[in-house]
Amino acid sequence: RDFGLSQILQLPSSFGNIYLGESFGTFVSVNNESEYAVHQVGVKIELQTSSQRFVLSDTTATPRTTLDPQTTYDATVTHEIKELGVHILVCSTHYTTPDGKKRHFRKFYKFQVSNPLAVKTKLNHHGEGRVFLEAQLQNVSAGPMYLERMRFEPSEHFDFNDLNGFYNSKGQLKEGASVFGDNFIHPQDVRQYLYLLTPRDKDNDRIARTTNALGKLDIVWRSAMGDTGRLQTSQLTRKPPLLEDIEIQPFWLTEGQVRVCLETPFQLGVRIRNYSGQNMKLVLSAIKTKMGSVLLSGLSSRQLGDLAPSCTTETQLEFFPLTPGLQRVTGLKVTDLITGYTKDIDHLCDVFV
């Protein structure tokens, strides 16, 4: 192409693969291929995205006084890529010819920014406001990656446990010990990360149970050439589970392993929490027609007393297993005598007999 005095500002035919989160860098060289010097040479380099325009370098306000024949004016620019889609590198050169005429030209270079990683999440809600977050990470780039960091940053209402490593006898996560063995992830490889989220304020966990914001994933990697890339996901959200007026959770009365034997009574604790905004007067009763192979021993109905909002009460139940194997404890209900509200407990827990 003819740009007037010389053919300058040569760019490669392709930038290769450019990915979101990486630092884009390019070397721009202005070469005076004419037989005489030009003056007041300035170069402005911009990066245009679908929504913004960034000035990466601009020497037009303080141009180089003289550019002699067969000499170059070089510039190196870098920019962290934070948007997907088409990007346009705009290079403008201004100069003055020996006869005092001001000239300028532009060069446009278009390239596509792709996503190097595909992230999918899945949620499993459990009692007491606990949430198991599964994060599936796939390398969709053209080359291998070294994952330098894969970190979950919970929202303000949650604490979390990283379940992707090994723990010592004190329950502390061993540094650098990963269930994946190494930190390399090859093209199209998929890794499944697991995190346990628990309400930060266990005494007042209503906000944590009803919020849709869970947290963010912060991912740092290095390419095959050692270049660093970083991605932070947007806020991971969920559809909050329906918060019922009361919640029932089972628990063992003794620590350690519990053995349940056939035709031998065993004890099980039940914790009930009032999530409504009013006082309750609760009764726990058995529905024998809904019980399976684990029967409730003793009285079929018992008073649990008054329960204020956001408060918890506990009781102990004795069960009698009739059949070996994995059995479901069911056939209970809790009734509020004040409002008439009833909650059927179709699945309290499973026990192996």
Secondary-structure map:
Elements (H helix, E strand, L loop, with lengths): L17 E2 L3 E9 L6 E11 L4 E6 L5 E4 L4 E9 L4 E12 L5 E13 L2 E9 L5 E9 L5 E10 L3 E5 L2 E3 L5 E6 L5 E2 L4 E10 L6 H5 L2 E10 L5 E5 L3 E2 L8 E6 L14 E9 L5 E7 L7 E3 L4 E7 L4 E10 L4 E4 L2 E5 L5 E4 L3 E4 L1
Parallel strand pairs: 1-8
Antiparallel strand pairs: 2-6, 3-4, 3-5, 3-7, 7-8, 9-10, 10-16, 11-15, 11-17, 12-16, 13-14, 17-18, 17-19, 20-21, 21-25, 22-24, 22-27, 23-25, 26-29, 27-28
Please provide a written account of the structure.
With 353 residues, this protein is mostly beta strands. It has three domains: 18-114, Immunoglobulin-like (Sandwich); 117-237, Sandwich (Immunoglobulin-like); 246-352, Immunoglobulins (Immunoglobulin-like, Sandwich), CATH 2.60.40. It has one helix and 29 strands. The protein has one helix at residues 206-210, and strands at 18-19, 23-31, 38-48, 53-58, 64-67, 72-80, 85-96, 102-114, 117-125, 131-139, 145-154, 158-162, 165-167, 173-178, 184-185, 190-199, 213-222, 228-232, 236-237, 246-251, 266-274, 280-286, 294-296, 301-307, 312-321, 326-329, 332-336, 342-345, 349-352. Strands 1, 3, 4, 5, 7 and 8 form a six-stranded mixed β-sheet that branches. Strands 11, 15, 17, 18 and 19 form a five-stranded antiparallel β-sheet that branches. A hairpin with a 5-residue loop joins β27 (332-336) and β28. The radius of gyration is 33 Å and the shape is elongated.
- Seen as an oligomer or otherwise, the chain set is single chain
Q: Could you report the average pLDDT, rounded to the nearest whole number?
A: 86
- Amino-to-carboxy terminus distance: 84 Å
Helix content: under 10%
- Structurally, the number of domains stands at 3
CA-based shape: elongated
Strand content: over 45%
Compute the gyration radius: what is it? 33 Å
State the major sheet. Answer: 6 strands, mixed
Task: Give the ordered list of helices and strands.
Answer: EEEEEEEEEEEEEEEEHEEEEEEEEEEEEE
Named CATH architecture of the largest domain: Sandwich
Per the CATH scheme, the topology name of the largest domain is Immunoglobulin-like
CATH class category label of the largest domain: Mainly Beta
Would you tell me the structural class of the helices and strands? Answer: mainly beta
